[in-house]
């Protein structure tokens, strides 16, 4: 990738079926500036699927992914691109001080812990949506064409050449974020079940652990009944045990259902995204 100063760059803007006038503005900018390329999706497919659309239509040797709320400072783009030019496949950003709500910060910490387990992510790496990728890494990520895209999970599936740079996180320029608690949980499930079988392994370990504990309790109960035949049966302990085991079974059935549901949707060829129109021809 040649430097931004000499004019060799492009800006790919993805309209994820926004309800406002975003697409009309993108069309206007594309007519005014030849380096602006707009993509409009037919429905809201979510942040990571929209990112996959932008990656697929990108043409540069270094691709920078960022949000549109200007909390990601554009001045950091050069530092990200320079890091990729040094030979890294992916460069994330690490914020000196995050300007997010408290619940988002706590959610990110939980997500960071789970990502360390599931994706084998380094502990000191923050999975920011503001990142740069080499052309080779992008092409490898784009090999995935399923409907449940989780870009960070795909990145760690194809490369270990990952680093980060420190930047200042800015206040949101205008408007409010679209990520609420429901969407955050949905994204977390996508990461946990879409990029690894780790939750299934946890369920297996818990199953063996509960079986071992049950055998121990059974042995203790038999010993107590033999040594103290006058003791009354403990109905409370029986009910508590049943509820505990039943609850764990429902959780693990839910995990299995999540995987099976994703397989079913994948087999039905549910699209990752559908493009309504672009500001450029497919040959460009």
Automatic annotation (TrEMBL):
Residue stretches making up the Glycosyltransferase 2-like domain: 6-110
Gene Ontology molecular function: glycosyltransferase activity
Keywords noted in UniProt: Cell membrane, Glycosyltransferase, Lipopolysaccharide biosynthesis, Membrane, Transferase, Transmembrane, Transmembrane helix
Stored InterPro entries: Glyco_trans_2-like, Glycosyltransferase_2, Nucleotide-diphossugar_trans
EC number: 2.4.-.-
Top-level taxonomic group: Bacteria
Pfam families found in the cross-reference section: Glycos_transf_2
Descriptive protein name: Glycosyltransferase family 2 protein
Keyword Membrane attributed: yes
Organism: Mesorhizobium cantuariense
Keyword Cell wall biogenesis/degradation: no
């Amino acid at each position: 990738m040649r430097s931004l100063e000499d004019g060799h760059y492009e800006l790919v803007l993805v309209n994820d079926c926004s309800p406002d006038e975003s697409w009309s503005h993108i069309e206007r900018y594309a007519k005014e500036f030849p380096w602006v390329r707009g993509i409009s999706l037919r429905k809201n497919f979510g942040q990571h699927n929209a990112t996959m659309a932008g990656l697929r239509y990108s043409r540069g040797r270094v691709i920078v992914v960022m949000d549109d709320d200007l909390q990601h400072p554009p001045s950091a783009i050069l530092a990200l691109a320079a890091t990729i030019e040094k030979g890294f496949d992916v460069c994330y950003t690490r914020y000196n001080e995050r300007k997010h709500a408290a619940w988002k910060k706590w959610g990110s910490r939980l997500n960071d812990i789970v990502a360390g387990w599931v994706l084998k992510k380094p502990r000191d790496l923050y999975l920011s949506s503001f990142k740069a990728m080499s052309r080779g890494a992008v092409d490898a990520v784009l090999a995935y064409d399923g409907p449940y895209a989780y870009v960070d999970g795909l990145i760690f599936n194809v490369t270990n050449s990952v680093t980060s740079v420190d930047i200042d996180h800015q206040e949101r320029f205008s408007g409010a974020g679209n990520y609420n608690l429901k969407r955050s949980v949905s994204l977390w499930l996508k990461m946990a079940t879409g990029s690894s079988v780790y939750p299934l392994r946890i369920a297996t370990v818990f199953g063996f652990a509960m079986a071992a504990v049950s055998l121990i309790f059974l042995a203790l109960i038999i010993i107590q009944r033999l040594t103290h035949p006058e003791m009354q049966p403990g109905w409370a302990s029986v009910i508590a045990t049943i509820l505990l085991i039943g609850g764990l079974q429902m959780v693990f059935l839910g995990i299995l259902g999540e995987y099976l549901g994703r397989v079913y949707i994948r087999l039905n060829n549910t699209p990752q995204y559908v493009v309504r129109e672009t500001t450029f021809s497919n040959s460009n």
